[in-house]
Amino acid sequence: MSKFIVKKTNFLQIFAFFQIVILLVYFFLNISNVGELGVGIPLLAFFLSCSIFVFLTDIVKFQLRVSFHFFAVIAFILWLTVKVILDLNDIYYLKQVTIATTGGILIFFITGMFARRLIELFLSNQLMLKFLLLIFMLLCFYVFSEYSSRLIRTDLFYIDDVDGGYQRPGNFLIIVFIICSFIFLNIVSNVSFKRIINFIIYLIIYSFGFVVALVSSQMIGSNAATINLIAIYLLTLVVGLLGSNNNLREKFFSSGLSFPFSKKGFLYIFKYSTISLFFLLLFTYFIVLKSNFDLSTTRIFGFGSGSNSSLNTRAEIFREYGVQQLGYSPFFGDLNVAKIITGDSGKTLHNLIPNIMAELGVIGLLIFLLILFLIFKNLFYNMHFYSYLKKNFTFVILNFWLLWVLVFLFLYSNISVGKSWPVIWFYFGFVISVFRTNEVSR
Known about the structure:
The protein has 442 residues and is mainly alpha-helical. It is 73% helix and 1% strand.
């Protein structure tokens, strides 16, 4: 009987691993086909269908518990559905903001939720994790080579035929980088991972994927991807150094080092942050100097204009129409508020909290804040509880990283994106285990 259980577990690990590979391939196909409406939909459908199979096996094998933040997300989507029907009476728009593969809140939340559960099934298998990190690097190189063949102009670092379709591949690039950063942290913070040479090897693989993805993000002109990749890389590098620090690990097990509030932990964070930022800037300077690359030809530097047009446009909309849109229907909100106030439905507030407030009112905002509160509460509980028990250092480190990535995504989204930014909804599904079993307490 025990042999049967081992074989079944191995099968589920292999099954889960290939499901994550399929998801990554789907994302990278859409990243490489910039300017297209969407490709590889059958791959996503296959991923979701097979994920439901894993979900059903969880129900059969274990007593299933559902995270409260799942119900809060469903409540947000239901309120959004009601508002679309009342304010717009537009079924197509409802599809776009719920289940469409570009900005559908529900589909990205579910995808993140299933991705986290599948990864949990093979987290204990270091070989699979390392192989997945290698696949990530190879897929990043594939996208880079695809983009390079479309670089035509010499005065602009910008591929041909983007046609403004950079947001979808840019968002997908951020999502796959979040997944693979999570994988990298699992590798370097593992209890058996002690030799510095091993850390360096996997840091090189991860960093190579990062650099290639970063350059690719500017080839399509996605400043959002560029900024998010840099921030997540730095957070991952700092927390990865924490997770691989044997002195910190020993202190954790001997005295129950408290996360996230620990004087010693903060000293290490400051030290590693300073070192990481210094070497990243030094590396960037060295590469730019040796390659004679002109940074002014990139979109993030405004193609030589000295300003960022996308950020300026967002700031201008908020400055001119922010107060009016927020004050139009403060309690219930109005999804048509931008057109009512400005005459242009495209002039919505590209700032997450103000956008939710203007379009979904106080009701929508309170539900969204409840989602955030439940996630933060869960992450803090995980870190505090496991620190108190002096067990599972890797799990504590992962939750610490998940917390800071969430803080960054929230801050960024309030500068540049609205309510249906797929990255944050994917992350809401990924950040904590939505469906928990007696086997998995995460």
